[in-house]
Amino acid sequence: MEGSAARPRTRIQTEKRDTILEAALEVFSTHGFRGSTIDQIAAAAGMSKPNLLYYFRRKEDIFTTLIQRLLDTWLAPLRELDDEGDPLTELRSYIRRKIEMARDYPRESRIFANEILQGAPRILPMLEGELKQLVDEKAVIIRGWMRSGRIARTDPYHLIFSIWATTQHYADFDVQVRAVLGPDRGGEGRFEDAARFLEQLFVEGLRPKG
Amino acid sequence: MEGSAARPRTRIQTEKRDTILEAALEVFSTHGFRGSTIDQIAAAAGMSKPNLLYYFRRKEDIFTTLIQRLLDTWLAPLRELDDEGDPLTELRSYIRRKIEMARDYPRESRIFANEILQGAPRILPMLEGELKQLVDEKAVIIRGWMRSGRIARTDPYHLIFSIWATTQHYADFDVQVRAVLGPDRGGEGRFEDAARFLEQLFVEGLRPKG
DNA sequence: CTAACCTTTGTCCATTCGGTCAAAAAATGC
DNA sequence: GCATTTTTTGACCGAATGGACAAAGGTTAG
Question: Which of A149, A168, B3, B199 has its CA 20 to 30 A from that of A18?
């Protein structure tokens, strides 16, 4: 039974595939798909290249499996945006969750950023399908909040884009953020500062005009 | 006289080097540094690989020359932020200029994004030097506006980051933006919509509380 | 113990890529 | 027109890379 089948059967296969995916996350997120080599991933996973290729037939298989597995985690915060909650509170906790993800899962953010920068050759269908559908859904909710006057009227799509952009910026452009803040302000506190700033910006920016 | 000297002497050298840099901008911005090959750039520039290498000795020389040349253009909008102007007007036109750049020069934006994503190995000194200095300078101006009560008090650095993030998002993540907006809303109007949204967000978000 | 299956590895291969080099071709100065 | 310099090119090289393969080493069920 070959190991690279879509569904691993043995315990050893499940474990090794997980090890490989963790290593691949590390490597792909820092060098991009094209810039990463199978050797690098194999080394990071502590195994030989042919052994790795026993579990994943091709480099691209590792990447697509990884992306597929990351997707749910990545979209979870947006999924939690709740129609029933208080609009400004909901948006504020969405922003906070996204900033926490930028802090705790920067590699995941960079993988997506890298892929989209290159034109999303391997995940375009997902963007046009699953992602668009989710955003459409949440845009309806946000528009409802606007109609009932609980937040200011504006474009819900660009609102979501701007939350993505500002929060993921702290993962994807981390080097630049730290370089500009300098040694004194570039410590761990930057995420807390960012969260405070963004909450203020969006809450004040979206407060309905009396 | 070798052609790859820092200062080209003949007219033909100046022209060819420009042709190469334009081709390199196209190639580097879509595949990143590592993902681009000299052959691709040479083909895009309409010359043979050895001929290209006659003008730039190494692949990295092309890249650094290109980045160097792009830098001024790229930072121009921030440089124009004027102490003397009306704060909200100044910020609004900064945002508008940045959105126009995302629309008109997406390749430049993607080159920087790509480089920073990989940890800015080739431009880190510039980030820590020139860029930091410029931002420090403008942060002082913005803080002055806050002190005099003409805009709300907040963190000027994160304010600048958020303007970068939101505007450049429309260049760097263009594929995703178009995928989510769909065929009907993903047309050229998206930049105008984005500009309107962002101006509203920042102006309302920064309006000083009476 | 043994046969069948799963896992690991050393070796090898074709391709791609960055870069060199010498020689041809073109341009330039006199 | 001729000599010198600049530009262009074909051929080539070594290293890196994705991937194939067969053989060896383990594991497990009977």
Answer: A168
Say yes or no: B141 and B52 in one domain: no
Say what the ipTM of the complex is. Answer: 0.92
C-alpha A67/C-alpha A126 separation (Å) is: 10
Chain-centroid distance of CA B134 in Å reads: 15
Q: In angstroms, rounded to a whole number, what is the distance separating the alpha carbons of residues A146 and A162?
A: 17
**pLDDT-derived band at B160, boundaries 50, 70, 90:** very high
Distance CA A197, CA A185 (A): 15
Residue B108 has pLDDT above 80, yes or no: yes
Residues B79 and B146 in one domain: yes
Q: State which amino acid sits at residue B142.
A: I
DSSP state of B208: P
CATH number of the domain to which A35 belongs: 1.10.10.60
- How does residue B76 score in pLDDT terms, banded at 50, 70 and 90? very high
**Co-location of A91 and A178 in the same domain:** yes
- Structural domain of A166: 69-206
Of B120, B159, B194, the CB nearest to A158: B194
Write down the pLDDT at residue B7: 53
User: Is there a single domain that holds both residue B81 and residue B180?
Assistant: yes
Provide the CA B38 to C1' D5 distance, Å, integer. Answer: 27
Query: A152: pLDDT confidence band, cut at 50, 70 and 90?
Result: very high
Residue A63 belongs to a domain: no
Pick from B83, B86, B97: nearest CA to B199: B97
Which pLDDT score, from 0 to 100, does residue A13 have?
79
Q: Do A179 and B132 touch (CB under 8 A)?
A: yes
pLDDT tens for A17-30 read: 999 999 999 999 99
Q: What is the mean pLDDT of residues B160-184?
A: 98
Task: Provide CB contacts within 8 A for A81, sequence distance 6+.
Answer: A90, A91, A94, A138, A141
| A127: DSSP letter | I
* Chain A neighbors of B205, CB-CB under 8 A: 200-202, 204-205
B176 vs B13: CA distance, rounded Å: 39
B189 in Cβ contact with A151 (< 8 Å): no
| B3 found inside a domain | no
What Å distances lie between residue A73 and A76, A196, A209, CA to CA?
5, 24, 35
CA B63 to C1' C20, whole Å: 21
